[in-house]
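Narrative summary of target 7.
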Amino acid sequence: MRQPPLLAHETLARVLRLAKFDGALVLVFAGGFALLSAMEGDFSGALVGLLVAGAGAVELHGFSLLREGEPRGINWLVGSQISLLVSILAYCAVRLTHLEVPPIPDALVSMLDVTAEQLGMTRDEYVRFVQRLALQSFAVISFFYQGGMAIYYYRRREPVTRALTEL
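Modeled conformation, tokenized:
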């Protein structure tokens, strides 16, 4: 049995809760990663961290606009998800073209060597394979998550606008 659609004001409340939580989470974590990357001298990591933190700030701006009764805030929410997705995909693309084998702790060397040998690879080939797999997985997951969030916000445009005009 299908449930009736939510009332416009309940849809607005849910969008506001999600935007506030998601925007703050993205801003804090990405800002922290940008700072850590900058401290390590990783310029590209710091830049991407700042871009992602900016997307979180954009989402919080959209939240603020909606809370103030401005229906255009939903555009900011959709835009934040698209800019976040583009930033993540750009980061993955850059990292995929510049794979570097990091220093490996001595405790892991033998385990990596055994696994690499079982797969017919050298240790460096295996580490690069794992890096590629992780980056590709991150890109795919981000595509569906951020894309889904953008669609979620976009599809709630009408009930959110209705709720704001009823206030």
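The chain has one domain: 8-101+142-166.
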